[in-house]
Amino acid sequence: MDNQEVGKKMMSIVADDGSIEEVEVILAFEFKDNKKEYVIYTKNEKDENGNVTVYVSNVDRSSGEPKLMGVEDEDEWNRIKDVLRELSKAE
What we know:
Blueprint lengths: L8 E6 L5 E12 L4 E11 L5 E9 L6 E3 L4 H17 L1
Antiparallel strand pairs: 1-2, 2-3, 3-4, 4-5
């Protein structure tokens, strides 16, 4: 009944237009010092070089329902890029 590969963690995201999309979660993590939660996910799209495109969002739980928000702070982005570099080394 379930055709997902074993070990893959999926989540549904709702776009601004109300459409729902299933994406694969690569990593969810929190920076302990600022208590901000993030999720790295993919739609398994590939760029022109054959690399899988990944997306990063801040998880906002303030309204009860988790919402994915963009990351706009440059310092946050630099910390997230460090996490992505470590993740790519591990593979």
